[in-house]
Specification:
The complex is a heterodimer of chains A (514) and B (159).
Chain A: E1 2-6, H1 11-14, H2 18-31, E2 35-39, E3 53-57, E4 60-64, H3 72-77, E5 89-92, H4 97-100, H5 118-123, H6 128-134, H7 138-148, H8 160-169, E6 176-181, H9 190-197, H10 199-213, E7 217-222, H11 227-242, E8 258-263, H12 273-280, E9 304-308, H13 309-321, H14 323-327, E10 330-331, E11 334-335, E12 337-344, E13 350-355, H15 360-367, E14 377-382, E15 389-391, H16 401-406, E16 415-420, H17 425-439, H18 445-462, H19 467-484, H20 488-492, H21 494-503, H22 506-509
Parallel strand pairs in A: 1-2, 6-7, 6-9, 7-8, 12-16
Antiparallel strand pairs in A: 1-3, 3-4, 4-5, 10-11, 12-13, 14-15, 14-16
Helix pairs in contact in A: 6-10, 6-13, 7-8, 7-10, 9-10, 9-11, 10-13, 17-18, 17-21, 18-19, 19-21
Chain B: H1 6-19, H2 26-37, H3 44-52, H4 56-65, E1 77-82, H5 85-88, H6 92-103, E2 109-110, E3 116-121, E4 133-135, E5 138-140, H7 145-158
Parallel strand pairs in B: 1-3
Antiparallel strand pairs in B: 1-4, 2-3, 4-5
Classes of the chains: A alpha/beta (514), B alpha+beta (159).
């Protein structure tokens, strides 16, 4: 009898020892003369349980975690390969409440399938969306994406279908589909998890986009900080070529789509779409002035789709199950589901995909379990380093585009970083300016110079120097950067500063003079 | 400018020759050079410029724009410490201070004995397991100062 065991190859799981656990399991099985099929899946996203080991049983997949190398002989003794009882047993994976209550549409296969296997992908519903798309007119594909209400999950929240329509309407000729996989916001890792755990859904989404707008070449612009995702993507692209889901004759349709990964080089600004296009062209990642829009003049001056990983990976399920199905989730103008990432000082961090409509409190306490330190949560930053800080008094805010916008915050890429009551918000504000200074592309003055001046002013405030005047200068500087910067980096870097001043003013004004 | 050992010059010419037909090849070329030599030597700039028919200023401009490209050889081990918000929320700054003290260098520096290069990184995407550190391309989560010392000894044993 062959036993099937799953040990994640997700970078986060590996960072907690999943690689060593996989080796220990293989070694112990050999020692005991047992035959194993060891599958290296993605992560289910419950990182407080990683390394999470699963075994296939007649009742379904059974989970054990968090497993360390030292636990392995004991697990074998307990007969874990057949689902035996053990203190680390979590029961059936899909019945773990933290996972069972989620609504996974985009992440439905992440942590479930073997990311390198086209066959496994197809068994789990993969390539149904592309099959549908190939039987539709380009206009009908774009209409389905528009009708689903899908908005760009990278942070800008622009309606995806409208972007595609613009590219479709450009005259025939070379067009491109590009994926922005430069996930640089602290507190976000959904792109990484998806590319490592279910890369074929991204590949399928890009292929559908190409079929819709008549593009023949695609690029995934991946940040260099993600070597595991790079390997997983290249492996999956190779497998898709071999199975003829990529190449000169996609699924026997006669349509051509070529796809490759291009690596970034540690520049946060390249997550801004025009800067990403410059970088893809092999240039400095400096922001372009818009118009023209990338949909009209994008990569190498040609019409180009630029979408985030999660956006593109959501397209297959929309085509497969219909626009209405997807639009049936969510509320108001925030349709569908959102993969939210819980990070920072949080007890149960990880990925929660739910329909729009949860409050911050539900996410932070029901899923997150409060702070990891056990101290009260004081603030959260939503939407990465350019996102506002939100105080505990606002935790009943809904996590959707409009509700967060109404309190002067933004959803961004859906990352939530939690801080306990030891956080010094003046120092976090200083960091926001420092980060902007490090990552500014230098093209416009408010961002390039403003961020450095901002850092200096906050340093004086922290030193207790002429607090009132310096806080006023800081507020004026923030206004200037918001109004005068060319792109979102300089234009939004003041958001965390302004929100910290608004909600945590005492952290700035009550400094002791040194 | 330092002179380039002839085998480095050959490697760079080979890489440029191999990649120059690709669309927008400069970033790819710089990645390939750094993958092979460990850094992008300033003396590589004129060779790349000539091979790709670009000006030296353009090549230097790109190589110096991106934080990832080094202009000096790295130490035997490269330590990346995440300095972003999620890691700061769980002791990332204290960990960074420990690492600096332990290695005896600041960020962007290499120890005089050439053993370690210390680099900051702004998010490794391991934010549910902060604080995060990468040593020689291996990612580690929930790193305490004690665990960092153990990981460093482990890296030492490997080389």
């Amino acid at each position: 009898m062959t036993f099937t065991v799953y040990v994640p190859r997700d970078a986060g799981a590996l960072s907690l020892g999943a690689g060593e656990v996989a080796h220990a399991i293989a070694r112990e099985a050999t020692r005991r003369g047992l035959e194993l099929r060891l599958i290296r899946n993605g992560s289910r996203g419950a990182y407080w349980l990683e390394p999470l080991v699963e075994v296939a049983t007649s009742h379904g997949r059974t989970a054990y975690g968090p497993v360390s190398v030292g636990d392995v002989p004991g697990l074998f003794d307990a007969g874990f390969l057949s689902g035996g009882a053990h203190p680390l047993s979590l029961g059936l994976t899909e019945a773990i409440p933290w996972l069972a209550s989620q609504q996974r549409l985009t992440f439905t296969r992440v942590g479930v399938v073997d990311p390198a296997s086209v066959a496994d992908y197809v068994v789990h519903g993969g390539y149904q969306g592309l099959r549908q798309a190939l039987a539709m007119s380009p206009e009908a594909i774009v209409q389905a994406v528009t009708g689903s209400g899908l908005r760009g999950r990278g942070g800008a929240a622009f309606p995806t279908g409208i972007k595609w329509k613009t590219v479709l309407e450009q005259p025939a000729g070379q067009k491109y589909v590009t994926c922005n996989a430069d996930e640089g916001d602290s507190g976000t890792f959904s792109d990484r998890m998806l590319m490592e755990g279910d890369p074929l859904s991204l590949i399928e989404g890009m292929t559908i986009a190409a079929v819709a707008v008549g593009a023949t070449q695609g690029y995934i612009y991946l940040r260099a900080e993600y070597p595991h995702a790079n390997r997983a993507l290249n492996e999956a692209i190779g497998a898709a070529y071999q199975a003829r889901y990529l190449g000169t004759d996609v699924m026997g349709s006669g349509k051509r789509f070529e796809l490759e990964v291009r690596l970034g080089a540690g520049a946060y600004i390249c997550g801004e779409e025009t800067s990403m296009l410059e970088s893809l062209e092999g240039k400095r990642g400096e922001v372009r002035v818009r118009p023209p829009l990338p949909a009209i003049k994008g990569l190498f001056g040609r019409p180009t789709i630029v979408n985030n990983v999660v956006t593109l990976a959501t397209v297959p399920t929309i085509l497969h199950r219909g626009a209405e199905h997807y639009a049936g989730y969510g509320m108001g103008k925030s349709r569908g589901t959102l993969p939210i990432q819980l990070a920072g000082n949080i007890r149960r961090g990880g990925l929660v995909e739910r329909a729009f409509g949860l409050t911050l409190r539900e996410l932070l306490y029901d899923y997150g379990g409060g702070s990891a330190s056990g101290r009260p949560l004081r603030a959260v930053q939503v939407g990465g380093p350019l996102g506002a800080y939100i105080s505990a008094s606002q935790f009943d805010t809904l996590v959707d585009y409009e509700a967060l916008g109404s309190i002067g915050a933004l959803l961004g890429h859906g990352g939530i970083v939690a801080f306990d009551d030891t956080v010094d918000m003046a120092r976090m504000a200083r960091y926001a300016m420092e980060f902007c200074a490090i990552e500014s592309c230098g093209k416009c003055t408010p961002c390039r110079i403003g961020s450095t001046r901002g850092m200096e002013v906050i340093d004086r405030i922290i030193q207790g120097e002429e607090t009132e005047g310096n806080v006023r200068r800081l507020e004026e500087l923030c206004d200037l950067m918001v109004q005068g910067s060319l792109c979102g980096l300089g234009g939004m870097a003041p958001f965390p500063v302004q929100s910290a001043l608004r909600h945590f003013r005492g952290d700035f004004t009550a400094r002791v003079r040194h | 400018m330092e002179t380039l050992p002839s085998k480095h010059g050959e490697a760079i010419r080979r890489i440029v020759e191999h990649m120059k037909q690709r669309p927008g090849p400069l970033l790819e070329v710089l990645h390939a050079i750094q993958a092979e030599l460990g850094y992008v030597p300033p003396a590589a700039v004129p060779l790349v410029a000539e091979g790709l028919n670009l000006s030296r200023a353009e090549v230097h401009g790109v190589a110096s724009f991106y934080h990832y490209f080094r202009s000096s050889p790295p130490g035997a081990h490269t330590v990346n410490v995440c300095r972003a918000e999620s890691c700061q929320a769980v002791g990332g700054e204290a960990l960074a201070a420990h690492v600096r003290q332990r290695l005896g260098v600041d960020f962007h520096e290499t120890t005089p004995d050439g053993r370690y290069s210390l680099e900051p990184v702004y998010c490794l995407g391991n934010c549910a397991c902060s604080p995060a550190v990468m040593i020689d391309g291996r990612l580690h989560g929930r790193v305490t100062p004690e665990r960092f010392d153990a990981l460093l000894s482990e890296a030492d044993r490997k080389r």
